[in-house]
Amino acid sequence: MKPGIPLALTLALAAAPLAGADRPEDAAGLFPYWDSAAVAQGAALYAENCAACHGAALEGEEDWRDRRDDGGYRAPPHDETGHTWHHSDAQLFAITKQGTEAVTGGAIVSDMQGFGDLLSDDEIRAVLAFIKAQWPEEIIARHNDLNRRVEAQQ
């Protein structure tokens, strides 16, 4: 388990049901990126709640690698050029639900608010499923491997 993610949240996420009976055999993690209904719901929710900062095409904020004048981080891309896929599903879910600063204990300054008061857990998983569904197969496979390694450590 990564620092900053409460054990109770990680356990709750691990126990969360996944949509789609046709889950690919090699899938791993919490986001049903193979479920077209979840991905479609996630696309709409992403457009409403995330695209203003992270871009309609998941491209992120301009100069996203550079910090703002106040030291905070800019919104990163969620496509394969960013680092989203370097984080486990549990981390991504926690950041989306609670916000970056809450998850990191204030160690990372960011405008990324928590969406736990706006979106249900299933809606958050749908947004993250939409994001993951946009990645190339190689990146999805690498992310699935990361999720398997994280699960094995728990």
Task: Tell me what you see in this structure.
With 154 residues, this protein is mainly α. The chain has one domain (31-153): Cytochrome Bc1 Complex, Chain D, domain 2 (Orthogonal Bundle). Helices cover 47% and strands 0% of the residues. It has 7 helices and no strands. The chain has helices at 7-15, 36-49, 51-54, 89-98, 100-104, 121-133, 137-153. The longest helix is centred in the C-terminal third of the chain and has 17 residues, at 137-153. The chain is globular.
Percentage of residues in DSSP E strands: under 5%
Mean pLDDT: 86
CATH topology: Cytochrome Bc1 Complex, Chain D, domain 2
In CATH's first tier, which class applies? Mainly Alpha
Order of helices and strands: HHHHHHH
Contiguous runs where pLDDT drops below 50 for at least 5 residues: 1-20
What would the principal axes of the Cα set say about the shape? globular
Q: How many β-strand stretches?
A: 0
SSE topology:
Layout: H1 7-15, H2 36-49, H3 51-54, H4 89-98, H5 100-104, H6 121-133, H7 137-153
How would you describe this structure in keywords?
disordered N terminus, 47% helix, globular, Cytochrome Bc1 Complex, Chain D, domain 2, 0% strand, single chain, 154 residues, mainly alpha, 7 helices
